[in-house]
Amino acid sequence: LSDASNLTARSALPWADTLAGLCIANAGVTLPHGIGMAIGGMYPHVMHGESLALSYPAFTRFTYTSAVLQFARLGRLFNEQLANAPDENAAKQSCEDLDAFLKKIGMWMSLEDKGVPEEELPALAKQSMVLPDYKSNPRVTTKDEMLALLQRCYRR
């Protein structure tokens, strides 16, 4: 939404939010939501959408090889030039295109940007594994991998 005065576009956002809620209620969530819930619980000044945005770059790179078809679909949504690209290429490119999208909408941020102390990353990693959301991810993290993911989210 680049024009805040566009009421047609603005009125579509609540519908999109409703559809997203229905999807989550029926299909569940994966790794970024568990991380996001932990961030919000430990650092309530960080909005859930922000926590998702700051975790998605690390999440996509961690996960895309375990869900090539899904990430290829995402890549093709972002980039029409990937229509005939091999799935593996489209999936890998989706990571870069998601980064570009987050930058475009002003959501390119890090844990450091949101004031999360670096020395608290081990506690945040542990808290990110309390809810079972991470277990629904196509690639399930270990404790060490969760910490490494959060370390990649710390600074941009």
Report what the structure shows.
The chain has helices at 7-27, 31-42, 48-63, 68-78, 87-104, 121-127, 143-154. The protein is mainly α and 156 residues long. The protein is globular and about 40 Å long. 62% of the residues lie in helices and 0% in strands. It has seven helices and no strands.
The number of E-state strands comes to 0
Largest sheet: none
The helix content is 55-70%
SSE sequence, one letter per element: HHHHHHH
Outline, from the CA principal axes? globular
Note the gap between the termini. 24 Å
Determine the structural class based on helices, strands and strand pairing: mainly alpha
The whole-angstrom Rg is 16 Å
Low-confidence stretches: none
- What is the overall pLDDT average? 94
Number of contiguous helices? 7
Strand composition percent: under 5%
